[in-house]
Design a protein that fits this description.
Distance between the termini: 12 Å
Radius of gyration: 17 Å
Shape: elongated
Largest sheet: none
Structural class: mainly alpha
Number of domains: 1
């Protein structure tokens, strides 16, 4: 029983991070991550990733957080999907940084590390609990 309580606590922390990441994704995308108001951008390429954050990443992150808090299996599945999006988005940022060359601004270099690390930890925790118990949630 203690292991189940520990897993629930861990999932609650992950759910909080998914919720906060979803809120930050929506708010940040509305301002094109510091590039100005999203809907006043004339360059479509500058607004594609923020639009994806607004339409896909933010809402999925928020919904997955509530699914995890309510102990629903679909919350775990959405969180796994979201983690994949975080890894993909982080890879895109690093590709863009390498493409542009130095200097590498810390506000673009550091957040993807969080996205990749958070996603990796979430996958490890969920897969480990499935392996040890046969199921993440009852």
């Amino acid at each position: 029983m203690n292991e189940k309580n520990e897993l629930k606590k861990d999932l609650d922390v992950f759910a909080l991070f998914f919720l906060l990441t979803g809120i930050f994704a929506i708010v940040g995308s509305l301002f094109t991550w510091g590039g100005g108001w999203l809907f006043s951008q004339s360059d479509l390429l500058k607004s594609l990733i923020p639009l994806a954050d607004l339409i896909v990443t933010g809402p999925i992150s928020i919904v997955s957080a509530f699914g995890i808090w309510n102990e629903k299996r679909w919350g775990i599945y959405l969180a796994m999907m979201c983690s994949g999006i975080y890894i993909f988005g982080s890879a895109l940022v690093y590709i863009m940084l390498v493409w542009r060359g130095s200097p590498y601004p810390p506000e673009l270099f550091i957040p993807p590390i969080f996205g990749m690390a958070f996603s990796a930890l979430f996958f490890v925790k969920v897969l480990e609990s499935d392996k040890n118990r046969g199921s993440t949630l009852s």
